[in-house]
Write a structure and sequence with these properties.
Blueprint (H helix, E strand, L loop, with lengths): L2 H36 L5 H13 L3 H20 L1 H21 L10 H21 L7 H11 L5 H20 L2 H23 L4 E8 L2 H12 L4 E6 L6 E9 L4 H11 L4 E7 L18
C-alpha cells in the first residue's frame, strides 16, 4: 500500500472517530441529561433502555448495548463487515459516554417540555454526525438497514415511525403518566426535524425551471447573475403547440431570487417554477461522499 493511500485511510479513520465522539456525546446528552430526568422515553432501543432504567435502575448505556446483541446477530451478515464494525465502535463509544462520562455532570431538572425539545435536538444532531460517516448506533437502525437491502420497495420511514411510536407509548404504563408519551413525541419530532436539516439541509437547494422563448438569453443572464450554468431543453406547449425552451438551473437557496429576477428581466412573460431539491451533488455544490457510487 502506498504512503499516500495509508495517509488517506488514516485521516479517514481519525475523522470517523472524531464524528463518533462528537455525535455520541450529543446523543448521550440528549438521552441522559434531558430525557432520563424528564421521565419520558425516546424512540428506539434508547427509549427501551430509559424505561428499563426507570423501572429497575439499570444503566442506560449498558442496557442499550445488551439490547443490541440479538439485533447484531440477526443482521450483521446482511449489513456487511464495514458497516457492522463502524456501528460496533459507535455503540461502544456511546455506551462509555452515557454510563461513565455524563454521570459526572449535572442533569437538567427544569421543564419537561424543554427537556423533550432539547433531547430531540441534541439526539438529532448527534445521530446526524454518526450517520454522515456511514455508521449507526445499532438498534432499530440495524433492522431498517437490513430490511432496506432485502426489500427496497417498503417505506422505511413508516417502519421507523411505527417502531418509535410503539416504544414511546410503552412509556405510559412504565412511567404511569400519559404526558410521558406526549413528551416523547415532542422529542421524536424535534429529532426528525434536526436530522433532516443537518443531513439534507446542508446539501439542499432549489431547482428553477424557466419556460421561455429566450432560452439562450435567459441562460446567459442567470450565469451573469449567480455564475451558475443551466441546461436547455426543447419543449412544446400542449395548448399552443408552439416550440419553446426550458432552462433548468440548480442553485442555492439564497440565489433563487436572483435567478428568478434574471429570467424575468430577459423575458417578463416567462413561466418560472421553483422546486425543492433535497440534495444537490456536483460542481459548485456538494461533492459525493467517500466510497459513494456516482454512476
Amino acid at each position: 500500500m502506498s504512503m499516500k493511500r495509508r495517509t488517506s485511510r488514516w485521516k479517514e479513520h481519525v475523522t470517523d472517530l472524531a464524528f463518533d465522539l462528537a455525535g455520541s456525546f450529543l446523543m448521550g446528552v440528549g438521552v441522559y441529561t434531558f430525557a432520563l430526568k424528564g421521565g419520558f422515553a425516546t424512540g428506539g432501543l434508547s427509549g427501551m433502555a430509559l424505561i428499563i432504567n426507570y423501572l429497575w435502575g439499570l444503566p442506560v448505556g449498558m442496557v442499550t448495548l445488551a439490547l443490541n446483541v440479538p439485533l447484531v446477530l440477526l443482521t450483521w451478515r446482511t449489513l456487511g463487515r464495514v458497516f457492522f464494525l463502524k456501528s460496533l465502535r459507535t455503540m461502544v463509544i456511546s455506551t462509555v459516554i452515557i454510563d461513565f462520562v455524563l454521570p459526572l455532570f449535572p442533569v437538567y431538572e427544569g421543564s419537561r417540555l424543554l427537556a423533550a425539545g432539547f433531547s430531540g435536538v441534541l439526539m438529532g444532531a448527534g445521530l446526524s454526525l454518526i450517520y454522515m460517516r456511514g455508521s449507526s448506533t445499532g438498534g432499530t437502525d440495524f433492522l431498517i438497514h437490513a430490511a432496506k437491502r432485502k426489500a427496497p420497495h417498503i417505506s422505511f420511514g413508516n417502519l421507523s415511525l411505527v417502531i418509535d411510536a410503539s416504544v414511546i407509548l410503552l412509556g405510559i404504563p412504565a412511567f404511569g403518566d400519559i404526558d410521558a408519551a406526549l413528551y416523547g413525541m415532542v422529542s421524536a419530532f424535534a429529532l426528525t426535524i434536526v436530522m433532516d436539516k443537518i443531513i439534507y439541509g446542508a446539501g439542499s437547494g432549489k431547482l428553477v425551471l424557466v419556460i421561455t422563448n429566450e432560452g439562450q438569453a435567459v441562460s446567459r443572464a442567470i450565469d451573469a447573475a449567480v455564475e451558475r450554468g443551466s441546461t436547455l431543453v426543447d419543449v412544446t406547449g400542449s395548448y399552443s403547440g408552439l416550440p419553446r425552451r426550458m432552462v433548468m438551473c440548480a442553485c442555492s437557496n439564497n440565489e433563487v431570487f436572483k435567478v428568478r429576477l434574471a429570467a424575468h428581466q430577459v423575458d417578463p412573460g416567462a413561466l418560472v417554477m421553483i422546486c425543492e431539491a433535497s440534495e444537490v451533488f456536483g460542481e459548485g455544490f456538494r461533492a459525493p461522499e467517500v466510497g459513494e457510487k456516482t454512476g
